[in-house]
Design a protein that fits this description.
Elements lengths: L6 E9 L2 E6 L4 E6 L11 E5 L9 E6 L5 E5 L4 E6 L3 E7 L6 H14 L2 E7 L4 H10 L1 H5 L7 E4 L6 H12 L3 E5 L6 H8 L3 H12 L9 E5 L7 E4 L13 H4 L4 H7 L16 H5 L11 H16 L4
Parallel strand pairs: 3-5, 8-9, 8-11, 9-10, 11-13
Antiparallel strand pairs: 1-2, 1-4, 1-12, 2-3, 4-5, 6-7, 12-13
Length: 314
């Protein structure tokens, strides 16, 4: 019997070499790659093929359709892809535990390099003292909101769920959003608030993928509306966020506050570290709220430039 023609589908969960593909009618099926290595990630549009009659239920991914973008990190050992075809990334931080500004900067740089708009949300506004300190640490990022580049939102996911939904609803509507966040930031609480069926769906997918394989899903997509036009992608937490896929000469372009002054440098190939007539170094004398660059952001730039300069190029 001839094989059926490949069908369109959307990858909504993945782990290892297997993924879950959602069909055009909304049903879901576990699929594996035709070749030895899976290249499909959550958010990918794929061509998949059901199995011949009597040969099980798992389909095969025949091809990954062209992507609009891919959000990933890369260190010396490996590349880790989060998701594809994103409209934006929501980076959820919390007043407690204290967040790493370096990790925030790395995620923002990766988003900028991929051409994906970022949102920053600071959770736990119900902890006044800790929240004020954290909000102040985000002052350079809030300053970059004029003209609009970074949107920084105050949230209290657990204590004010209705206000959280109201604040995020217009920003998420009609878009596919990847949620990132360190441990303790409230990411799982936020995902379950916005997608009430997420926990049940994750358990079902994990159970299906676990059949004889002892795996759990690491990334999953949830629809927030019946029309399947607004999606939230939950990603696993991360301790490190390598940027080895970005050349040191591209770093300034991926940091909006640095990029805003790079054109003012005397030399076209200025590294913004020591050259005379450097517009970036001069901007350190200007307050971030007045269009300058903060010391903390410049230290991050300097540290990452050194790291990327020493990294092997791929």
């Amino acid at each position: 019997m001839a094989e059926a023609a490949p069908r369109d589908g959307l990858v909504v969960a993945s782990h290892g070499r297997h993924c879950v593909v959602e069909t055009e009618d909304g049903s879901r099926r576990i699929c594996h790659p035709r070749g030895k290595k899976s290249q499909a990630v959550v958010g990918d549009r794929v061509l998949w093929q059901p199995p011949p009659a009597g040969r099980g239920e798992e389909g095969t991914v025949e091809a990954v359709q062209p992507r609009r973008n891919l959000f990933y990190r890369q260190d010396e050992l490996r590349t880790k892809s989060f998701a594809a075809n994103l409209d934006q990334i929501l980076i959820l931080l919390a007043a407690e535990p204290v967040f790493s500004e370096m990790q925030l900067a790395r995620a923002l740089i990766a988003a900028e390099a991929a051409g994906i708009a970022p949102l920053i949300a600071l959770n736990k506004s119900d902890l006044p003292e800790a929240w004020e300190r954290a909000w102040e640490r985000l002052a350079p990022y809030r300053a970059m909101g004029t003209p609009a580049h970074y949107t920084v939102l105050p949230l209290s996911v657990s204590q004010a769920p209705d206000a959280t939904r109201q604040a995020l609803a217009p920003l998420l509507a009609g878009k596919t959003t990847l949620v990132l966040g360190p441990s303790g930031a409230g990411k799982s609480t936020l995902v379950n608030l916005l997608a009430p069926g997420a926990a049940v769906l994750t358990a079902e997918i994990s159970q299906a993928l676990n059949s004889g394989r002892h795996t759990t899903t690491s990334t999953a997509l949830y629809w927030l509306d019946a029309a399947r036009g607004t999606a939230l992608i939950d990603s696993p937490g991360f301790q490190e966020f390598g940027l080895h896929h970005i050349a040191p000469t591209e770093l300034a372009r991926c940091m909006p506050d640095i990029a805003a002054h790079a054109a003012d440098c005397r030399f076209y190939n200025c590294s913004h570290l020591h050259e005379p007539g450097c517009g970036v170094i001069s901007a350190l004398k200007i307050a971030p709220g007045a269009g300058g660059i903060s010391e903390s952001r410049y230290k991050i730039y300097s540290a990452l430039h050194a790291e990327l300069s020493a990294a092997p190029r791929y």
